[in-house]
Design brief:
351 residues, 12 helices, Rossmann fold, homotetramer, 7-stranded mixed sheet, 6-stranded parallel sheet, Quinone Oxidoreductase, Chain A, domain 1
Amino acid sequence: MQAVIFHGPHDFRLESINEPKLESPSDAILRVTHTTICGSDLHLWDGGLPAAEQGFAVGHEFVGIIEQVGEAVTTVGPGDRALVSCTIGCGSCSRCRRGLHSGCSVTTAGGTRSNIFGFSSAFPGGQAEVVRIPFADSNVFQIPDGVSDEQALFLTDILPTANMATEFAEVAPGDHVVVFGCGPVGSLVQQLAFIRGAAVVIAVDLDEARLAHARQLGCETIHPEKENVLERILQITDGEGAASVIEAVGRTELVSQAALYLRPGGVIAVAGVIIANVDLPWALFLMKNLSLRGGLVNPQRHVPQLMPLIESGRLDPAQLVTHRMPLSEAIAGYELFAERRDGVLKVVLEP
Amino acid sequence: MQAVIFHGPHDFRLESINEPKLESPSDAILRVTHTTICGSDLHLWDGGLPAAEQGFAVGHEFVGIIEQVGEAVTTVGPGDRALVSCTIGCGSCSRCRRGLHSGCSVTTAGGTRSNIFGFSSAFPGGQAEVVRIPFADSNVFQIPDGVSDEQALFLTDILPTANMATEFAEVAPGDHVVVFGCGPVGSLVQQLAFIRGAAVVIAVDLDEARLAHARQLGCETIHPEKENVLERILQITDGEGAASVIEAVGRTELVSQAALYLRPGGVIAVAGVIIANVDLPWALFLMKNLSLRGGLVNPQRHVPQLMPLIESGRLDPAQLVTHRMPLSEAIAGYELFAERRDGVLKVVLEP
Amino acid sequence: MQAVIFHGPHDFRLESINEPKLESPSDAILRVTHTTICGSDLHLWDGGLPAAEQGFAVGHEFVGIIEQVGEAVTTVGPGDRALVSCTIGCGSCSRCRRGLHSGCSVTTAGGTRSNIFGFSSAFPGGQAEVVRIPFADSNVFQIPDGVSDEQALFLTDILPTANMATEFAEVAPGDHVVVFGCGPVGSLVQQLAFIRGAAVVIAVDLDEARLAHARQLGCETIHPEKENVLERILQITDGEGAASVIEAVGRTELVSQAALYLRPGGVIAVAGVIIANVDLPWALFLMKNLSLRGGLVNPQRHVPQLMPLIESGRLDPAQLVTHRMPLSEAIAGYELFAERRDGVLKVVLEP
Amino acid sequence: MQAVIFHGPHDFRLESINEPKLESPSDAILRVTHTTICGSDLHLWDGGLPAAEQGFAVGHEFVGIIEQVGEAVTTVGPGDRALVSCTIGCGSCSRCRRGLHSGCSVTTAGGTRSNIFGFSSAFPGGQAEVVRIPFADSNVFQIPDGVSDEQALFLTDILPTANMATEFAEVAPGDHVVVFGCGPVGSLVQQLAFIRGAAVVIAVDLDEARLAHARQLGCETIHPEKENVLERILQITDGEGAASVIEAVGRTELVSQAALYLRPGGVIAVAGVIIANVDLPWALFLMKNLSLRGGLVNPQRHVPQLMPLIESGRLDPAQLVTHRMPLSEAIAGYELFAERRDGVLKVVLEP
């Protein structure tokens, strides 16, 4: 089969490799119909996130058709349309039981490796024709008739990531919510903040086109090079500050600044991927009783909540798809996405 | 001044009485601009709720302009547009501190009297030109510029009641929510269920016009004399049952039935006013791990959450106003409302 | 092997049957070391709970040693000391994912049968030498070194049941909590209420010896035939009423009465097994904003929370064991337990 | 009257000043019976916290007898034994309504001044014979008969602070909780962690006498200069890490380290007073899904929960009182406390 294979930064190659087989009675084999490139794939692409090895298939956002399941699998069967969580949990360890599959003791081998598809040879990724899914009953979800493959693709990672952030932020009816970033994750955060009852969502970004899109969703917008962010937030919130700030860009300085924009009792939630340390202005935390939360996504917890919102038509994440191409053109897709050309938001690859 | 005075069932009279005066440094005097008739006023009107005395002004939903405040009042001043909570709390007793102003130890005189405006001479009501508001800092809220008097009128009782019910029901993103009743409270419950993220709201009523209105809000609808309620709910929820059922009619048998329609872990919330005992099918509670909640509203807790939703335009309760008339025609207003003529939903009276 | 076999009310027989075998890669085979008789076993014994068939092994509270596991099992292996949840969940369906294994779509076969061990031939019980455990990764927990088999026995059902009730009741630091019943479940509820921070636990029972035991745990006690329950509760709570009432007897009239004893905002939680309808004084729910909750236990959710409390010595449920006998004397054990002889609280049977 | 007057770092003087009078109908006048020196008073004493003026009475932890109340006060009257919250809230602004009296818009004059007693001439403190209490209904609580003045003294600040920290940390039954610091606040945090159901509390301190006291309370203890903190925590928690870490010392580096000691999903709560920035290892927050919270205390929210725990005897904070002296010896008290002589934990001053 064909797959996008990691050989180093800026060196991804479309290659032919053997199809995976069932290895355990709890495995499933999925034939991929749609896969997409995630912002965190770019960290592999540009070397920001160093990989310890090479030669594995990349990609952790993919959906398809179940081809085969092990004898112990009860929730899906051959022929089912299915989506797969990007983080792989055994479903039974103490962490998975608490909804923290991203920290699964079994699949991270006690914390010694990543348990996300497509970051090592332990769990080859889904920018490929066929993928083996360990612990299928924990990590695979059937796609209902009313939901398209492209919509379901967003449930594998970034829609749950956005939902996690609004949950971390405890977005509640009537809230004023600030969202840093209007990229794919930021846009979904904005939509989910409204779904959770936010009265006002304030989107901050440097890209005018993305700000225009946020306004179409009903957001107030701020361009930080053209306006004073603090002044505008205080003006919109009647001098009170926001109930929460959600960081959906991935920059430490935005986390540091967020405390300024909050009302007493406010919350900062980080959806962006940040590895560096954060310099936290604790005096503001002390005086205003603030909270800060972040982490990796666990789609296993979020899919059951988000699927009905797509099914009922309240939420259509597939509107973020700007480009579609065959898997054979994946390398061009990476370049397009890395360079943010053509107003790209989300590139779907079809094997 | 003129006021609607209670003399017995079907015997409300427009009479001239003395204007109230400040009695305590924590009082405020409000000149009423808009007041409305509530479903619970009808219980006085039709005798369903017996009053121990007569001669008091009725009405507990009213807004206006502050005319005077006592020396201890800090949150409003003369000239402010203001709304008043229907239940009166001292704001300082252990119950008010827990957000249960409806059970205020001080204003209920230790549980020996009602602390709602317009049900006794202890707290004369707001279908009048002027009202004295005890504990103004606890019970009065300024109306912001972007909110009309008519919109604010809904914050005195029924919008908080609807919000309390969705809170009791723990409505969460992705939920399927059943709402019994499409009257004023039911309609607001439906809108707030969507604001809290419900994927699907299923409205049940016997009135086709009201069901049509619910469909305009985006609800699925069921007419229980034309369709089998259980079958339809199971069909809409894929056989699973609803996450919550909200009773917004006020009939014991609907509370009894609700358990049938719920999925495991479901919740029944009662917004309707019910005095009689409820016959509860406990076997369903046992097998499905259900919860049941009800109570009187505490607008004091809900106004800060709901006001920004009106201000931002996400919610416009004033769309439920079907009739407007001067206070001098209040008796005709009662008759219209009691007989449900002319598609009446909400009658606004203007002194 | 030997097992206690159901043939009808008052007709349980110790018989020899074949040992169960692995049937699925997710099964485990457990050799029972300790099992006990539960109050709900008595419902089978006395006919209160009719069984549709006969010939199956009874018993749903048991621990032992894992003898064999299917190829898909990851959390336990041969030789492990292990306890088993009384309700059996697949661990992967939408209900199990929400922590409601008692309503598991798979093991209840879509709601058409009980998924508790020992109530039908679908899931033969643990008053036997060997038991087959379906979906072992979901339903089996290793017993740590510091916890005895007898202590672990309580984690299979009644300690989680008691914990569920205190969770339903939202017991919080500083609360006054009323517990109806001082039997095994009631006593554990009392201990867990203190562990959750209750300031005062008020135990109500008709049995003086059991009340004395509650006093040893630090409870206030009320004998309802000797004292007026309402008066005493109001006296202890300074006229306010309790924050919660937990029913641990299983009588509908106690649920009906509970609303009387609550302060505004209070909660009724039902731990007892009740099948009949409950007559609910809704006027009290309306005036006091009350909640009511009940259901079947899901030890899968509670074991991870309760195990450390036993391990650290804060909680020792094995103190409730009053009688120990070999499995061969099980029938005598049933008679003793059914007749409440010799101050019996919990009878442990050892195969 | 006599009072301890601030003239600069290390320059507190016992002076005679005029007694305060009622200034508003919502004021109360309290005659102090017991007051105590808080760790944050030491920040004034040693200059760590610069004051903008001088000549005001210090002290924010005090109890006494109500001498006089304004006409609007309903919750206390002359002759009542009463305690006073250290932070002063109006009780009616949007922040006080959310339980954040420490951020009260009115008493902080829109965020331009401290609203704690004893830090400026705006709110003269309680190391004095008489104090004026603004907004008495919001800030004063009656002391029940079963609670001593010394016990009540802890409800004015540090017991609520400790409770806030355990609430921030979401301490739940079965948790392993790490507490940095065994001073007065740390010791109360340890006790409250047990009251909230912690299975194991791990106390960390450099003072052997304080560690011995923690062991008497049932804690595991670690001396960081004699043992490796991380290794010991992993050993005690079976390699999993703690559910929460509570900082009760006031050092930024402890907040930075805390993430290391947590299990996935863990929480860091800061009870200590920290003004400097915190360097946060975000990679750990990302990989382990952590939360961080801090802030100023609002005794108004905590007293109703804590009082019954003292009343029922579950908690006796007065055991932390090591020294008692007349107010006239206050300066000697400060020196003793600042130098940590004689095993001092808490010094009570009696006017």
